Amino acid sequence: xxxxxxxxxxxxxxxxxxxxxxxxxxxxxxxxxxxxxxxxxxxxxxxxxxxxxxxxxxxxxxxxxxxxxxxxxxxxxxxxxxxxxxxxxxxxxxxxxxxxxxxxxxxxxxxxxxxxxxxxxxxxxxxxxxxxxxxxxxxxxxxxxxxxxxxxxxxxxxxxxxxxxxxxxxxxxxxxxxxxxxxxxxxxxxxxxxxxxxxxxxxxxxxxxxxxx
Length: 213
Fold this sequence. Notes:
Elements: E1 5-7, E2 13-14, H1 23-27, H2 36-46, E3 49-51, E4 55-56, H3 58-67, H4 86-94, H5 97-101, H6 129-143, H7 147-151, H8 158-163, H9 171-178, E5 184-190, E6 193-194, E7 198-199, E8 202-207
Parallel strand pairs: 1-3, 2-4
Antiparallel strand pairs: 5-8, 6-7
Helix pairs in contact: 4-9
Organism: Prototheca wickerhamii
InterPro entries: Extradiol_dOase_DODA, Xdiol_dOase_suB
GO molecular function, one term: oxidoreductase activity, acting on single donors with incorporation of molecular oxygen, incorporation of two atoms of oxygen
C-alpha cells in the first residue's frame, strides 16, 4: 500500500491475514491496548498517516503472543510503503531512533529467507544450500554493521532473488537496522533455518552505557 501508516486505535483488532492454516490460529485473539499518543509521536517523527481502521496483522500478534502473553503492553504497528526503495525504508527507520530513548521497543518481524514454494515440511532434507548462503551473508553483514549491503539485497544475485521473493518479510529488518545506534551491542539470539527455506534468525540490538572518562 502506498504511503506509510501507523495504527492509532485505542483497541486494535486482531487480523488473521493468512490462508490454509489450522483453525486454532484463526480463533486466536491478541487483545492488547493500542496507543493513540504513541501513534501521534510516530507520525510526528516520520510523517506517517494515522490509521484507526486497521489493526495488528499476524506479523505482529503471532510474536507478541509469546513475548507478552498477558497482552498488557500498548502496541502500534507501522505499515510498509511499497513505493519506497530498500534504502528509503532504512532512512525512514532512522527517524524512529528517538523513540528508543523514550522507552519504546522497536520490533521488526519477518524472515531473512522466506520462500514458501521451496519449503520441505518433512524437515528431512535440512537447509537448502542457497538459503544457508543468504542467511550467513546477511548475518555477517549485520554483525559487521555493513547495513548498506543488507539494504542492497536486490543486487546480490540469484540466491537473494530466491530467498527474498516477497519483500514484505525482509523489509522489517531494515527498520531494525535503521533504528539502531552505534552504541548498540548486536546479538544473534537464534539462528535456524526451518523447513529448508524459512530463516528464523533473530537479532537484538541492546544499547550499551556510555563510558565517561
